[in-house]
Amino acid sequence: MARKDVEVRKETGQVPVERQVFANPVHEFRQAMDRLMESFFDGFDTPHFGRRSDAFVPQVDVVDSDKEIKITAELPGLDEKDLEVSLTREALTIKGEKREEKEEKGKDYYRSERSYGSFTRTIPLPAEIDAEKVAASFKKGVLTVKLPKTKQAVNETKKVSIKQE
Question: CA–CA separation, 94 vs 57, rounded Å?
């Protein structure tokens, strides 16, 4: 084994350190494969490949007042025949299906696009509801459901005082 003499710097008394950066071939291979997979699956946008799905999820507002719970859901492009609203003791469920078909014909082309999708939103109810008085309306793509609370639920509501320290 050959011995290599190390030169010590006289002014500082330190040995110079030579840094070598070694490339990790496994790490480089993994990065290359990640880049390849990302570029290959661009445009698929399906949840099976770890991408975000463009599924329709309606926006829902819930307002809990003293006497009722009011739920408003934005459902653009849907008709009331495409919706189903159901109520259990614990939750309100809104189900729907959105279908869209476009057809365009030109002199030198024909284009047809179809998209379908269903959704379900379940909203937990924080109080007992009087199921006989529940009312739902649908106007201009907005579903409004009014859920009156039972007299017992209204009477059980207690205000808690907050003490300042």
Answer: 11
